[in-house]
Amino acid sequence: MSEHRKKLAILLWAATAERPQLCATPFVHAAAAAAFDCEVEIHFAGPTVRLLVAGVADALRPWPGVDTSIYQMMRQATNLGVELRACAMAMGALVGTDEALIPEYAGTAAASAFVARALDPGWATLVY
Predict the structure, then answer these.
(1) Taking the domain 7-127, which CATH number applies?
(2) How many C-beta atoms lie closer than 10 Å to residue 87's C-beta?
(3) Is the full-model pTM beyond 0.85?
(4) Nearest to residue 38, comparing CAs of 6, 83, 75?
(5) What is the mean pLDDT of residues 1-24?
(6) Which residues contact 60 (CB under 8 A, 6 or more apart)?
(7) Three-state SS at 43
(8) How confident is the model at residue 3 (pLDDT cuts 50, 70, 90)?
């Protein structure tokens, strides 16, 4: 791996709680990148912010017969240093003020933050 590009920003857009089969891969890729000593951020956009609500991802399995929950995959990634960031507008619209968030949630990031990562040659980006 090139020494000048060791940062990865992942945008979750289609990997929603309603489509758990799309949720495993981004967290597996994030954990793999972090294991390669990459700085990794996952940006949650639109309805993907629901995965940050306590209990939602823990109830999801990517496929029938898989024991590992999406939340366990998220925790594996964050245990390796991956940061979970969310769109403030989506959080305000789709997450109730009375809903608890997972402890691994690192705070909001504007849409412009992901765009800035995409435009920065020091960052690679993936969209799911």
Answers:
(1) 3.40.1260.10
(2) 23
(3) yes
(4) 6
(5) 89
(6) 17, 20, 23, 51, 69, 70, 71
(7) strand
(8) low
